Amino acid sequence: MRRLWLVVAALGSVSAAHAADMPDLPVLRGGFTDGLSKTSHNWDGAYVGVNGGYTTNATDFSQSVVGLTNFIFRDSVLQQPTASWSLMNKTNTQSTNFGAFVGRNWQWYDAILGLEGTYSYFNNLATSTSGSNSLIITNPAGDNPPSGTTDNYNVTLTGTAAAKVKDMISLRGRVGWDGGDFMPYAFAGAAVGRMDVSRTVTSDVTLTQIVTTTGAGGATSTTSTTYAVPAQSQTQSQHRTNAFVVGWTAGLGVEYCIWEGLFARVEYEYVKFSPVMNTSVTLNNARVGLGYKF
Predict the structure, then answer these.
(1) pLDDT of residue 77
(2) Residues of the signal sequence (predicted)?
(3) Cα separation, 145 vs 153, whole angstroms
(4) Could you tell me which residues come within 8 angstroms of residue 35 by beta carbon, excluding any fewer than 6 positions away?
């Protein structure tokens, strides 16, 4: 038995000496994680930031003066034929934008949901157009000329319109994905813009009456007389300053964590406003920004 204990003691001494000579491997201390775990950036929390970029504006003036022409031709036989005249075209313009944003993220594993408010100021985002159209309207509905008489209304419309988008606020919901230092996201929400909008139309209307008569023996004769129509020959204008216009917004973006809470972002935003005075405005915004998450 005494010999057995001596053998056990000798083996223990050799094992301890061998362990002391082994290198200090991280895996033996639990510090080796390569391929065993995934680091994830914490995007949860409130944040603020500033941004700037470029905006393209598409403004549809094709129906801008319809409200004015409907007023000029109200209660007349010309209201229906002129109700949908497309007098002017669409225009496009470009400008820079500057703004700020504030929001809050909530993170569940790799999924991120957020709510964000933005403000954008547009640098001279203004456009205008003009147009003219002439048409001969013969015996319009509701017109009852005498037998043998043809009424030709000679209508000429000349119009101008302008629109300027000053600034915009939006409230957007966001859905993102935690890609480590990167977070791609999509958003959609409501927008309210502030605009100056104006429109003017001038109408010039004359009536040419062609009368055909049949004499003895079946001979016919034709007479033509032109009259001014002052009731429908006039100019109407309308101007709204700082008009608030509602709309909707949607887009895509990506954020990159630079250092701790500091992050940069790049995004594209589409904005569609409801018509104001029959003028429709659409914006395409490209932005870069810098923010800080608390």
Answers:
(1) 92
(2) 1-19
(3) 12
(4) none
What is the per-residue DSSP string for 169-236?
EEEEEEEEE-BTTEEEEEEEEEEEEEEEEEEEEEEEEEEEEEEEEE-GGG-EEEEEEEEE-GGG--EE
Q: Which helix (H) or strand (E) holds 151?
A: strand 149-177
Q: What is the 3-state secondary structure (H, E, C) of 24-49?
A: CCHHHHCCCCCCCCCCCCCCCEEEEE
- Amino acid making up residue 16: A
SS3 assignment, position 19:
helix
- Per residue in 277-287, pLDDT (tens digit) is 999 999 999 99
Q: How many CA atoms lie within 13 A of 283 on its CB side?
A: 36
**Following DSSP, what letter does each residue of 46-73 receive, concatenated?**
EEEEEEEEEEEEEEE-TTTTHHHHHHHT
> Considering Cα of 250, then 252, then 257, then 258, what sign does the dihedral take?
negative
Which secondary structure element, helix H or strand E, spans residue 168, and what is its range?
strand 149-177
Most trustworthy range by pLDDT among 37-46, 217-226, 275-284? 275-284
